[in-house]
Amino acid sequence: MARLQNQTLFFTTSPRTPYKMIPEIRLLIENLKGEKWNKQSQLQFAELLARDKNFNGSGSQKNMDFSARDRITRAPKALGFVDLKPSIQLTKAGEALLSGKRTEEVFARQMLKFQIPSPFHNPPKEQKGEFWVKPYLEILRLIYELGTVSFDELMIFGLQLTHYEKFNQIVFKIRRFRRLKAYEKVPYKKFRDDFLKNEVQKIYQEDIENGNTKTRESRDKSVEKFVRTKTGTMRDYTDACFRYLRATGLVEISQRGHSLSIMPEKRSEVEFLLKTVDRNPVFIDDEESYKKYLYDNHIPILYSDDRDRLLKQIITVCGNKYDLAEKTLEQLKDILDIEIQKNKDNIIDRQVKDLKEYKEYFDVMDMFKDIKENSLYDTPLMLEWNTWRAMTMLDGGEVKANLKLDDKGQPMSTAPGNMSDIVCNYGDFGLSVEVTMQSGQRQYEMEGEPVVRHLAKLKKETGKRAYCLFIAPKINDSCIAYFYSLHTMNIAFYGGNSVIVPLELDVFINMVEQSYAAEYVPKPEQMESFFEYSLEQAKTAIDETEWYEKIREKALNWL
């Protein structure tokens, strides 16, 4: 059982993106099902993770068993996808998640059951009664009640919703914050920081007064350090709440506004959940009953679990084109999924058409400006999505982004770790596009080998010659040296030589600007000639610095 150490709500922060749970749970079950969850199996799992292509990162080298617990006992266990006692098992909810069908529905059910306290999460004796809440349910209610909730509002006030009876009090606080913000003369950042510091000091007033201000991994007992640490933790929890709620498909995010709101198409579903899901935690001291409840993949009842409501949804989406009378509930849900996917495909087709006609050019350029200023909520995600939009405009060919999009064609999460961010099919050849916000040595450590592996995978799958474009705000010298060396190294494992061209984001943006200014649509051959030029220069350049300068200059004049 985990002991709660905070005075605020907490949300599972590992993995950071809920979709990353899926391959990791599968890895656990395929290799360790039936084993005891102990230090030995945890070390085994950590080693499996380190070798797995879906896993980004290295974990803790000193405490590999901790790395395993971090990935499994947080979100997968807390949300009921795996059972670790008496042995490692996949639950019914876990089976539903790994099936790949209606993933958003699976996430919604499990998050709505997450509660504090529970047999998995129990506060210390002195906090008994202070926690009585289903966090995701109440935050969803908060978003519905206020219309929109910003990251700062959720961090400063929403995390204080430790008991559902505090709901109206939190709504009042947020509305007061908004009124004061409207009349405040100082810059918003100072106003926000002062408000946040004041609220943190109120929340932890007793600890501060009693001198309990020491934080883990630090000897500094100052109040300033204590407040900074608690603030950082609250920021992490808020980010996790945003990402996990987004995975339910019930909310949408404003990247520029850093806020969540209810998806207009899901408003009836949310209203149904807020009316029908019990706000009270259940089976607090009965682990067996709690696990039975948590692992049930049919609890709670969702809006679409009612046949009449489901029929109305299908008719709303696609009219009376189907004979639905004899269909089972699951068959009806399959039909609805198919029609929603068709609508999504049509939306994306329209996006592609508008992009190829440069109708979205200025929006793409504005988005790149926001990315460079790091003013968006999820900059890495938006860099991936906006680069896909730019590549679609740049020249002919079929350009596919491997990120996950919602029903409205908006980005939800970045590409999985085992594939390229973007794949371009130009007929005779292919192009892998990789993007990252990472900089410094970490860029090389996190991106170097996977980029080469993804390119090799593209060569093998298509049987065609293929190249790779690597884009980042700043290119690390180690990456330049590594990609330069691979140009002329014939490595069978990577399908021969690997032509990977690193470009700074500003240079890539310039390439897009050239394409827009041209009086013709650039052809795929012009793109391929750029990579062939890179290969030629790698053979004759004195070193990686000369090679990089030449391809950079070529990119600035590629048309």
Keywords:
559 residues; alpha/beta; FokI Restriction Endonuclease, Chain A, domain 1; Restriction Endonuclease; 3 domains; five-stranded mixed beta sheet; three-stranded antiparallel beta sheet; 54% helix
Quick overview of this protein structure:
The chain is an alpha/beta fold.
Would you give an account of this structure?
- This protein has 23 helices and 14 strands.
- The strands form 5 sheets. It has a 5-stranded mixed sheet, with helices on both faces.
- The protein folds into 3 domains: 2-295, FokI Restriction Endonuclease, Chain A, domain 1, CATH 3.90.241; 313-345, no CATH class; 358-555, 3-Layer(aba) Sandwich (Restriction Endonuclease).
- It has helices spanning 21-32, 39-51, 64-72, 75-78, 92-99, 103-113, 135-146, 151-156, 167-183, 188-203, 205-209, 223-246, 267-276, 287-295, 307-318, 329-356, 361-373, 379-394, 440-462, 477-486, 505-517, 524-540, 544-555, and strands at 2-3, 82-83, 89-90, 121-122, 149-150, 251-254, 259-262, 398-401, 404-405, 411-413, 422-425, 429-435, 465-472, 500-504.
- The chain has 559 residues and is an alpha/beta fold.
- The mean pLDDT is 90.
- Helix 15 (307-318) packs parallel to helix 16.
- The longest helix is centred in the middle third of the chain and has 28 residues, at 329-356.
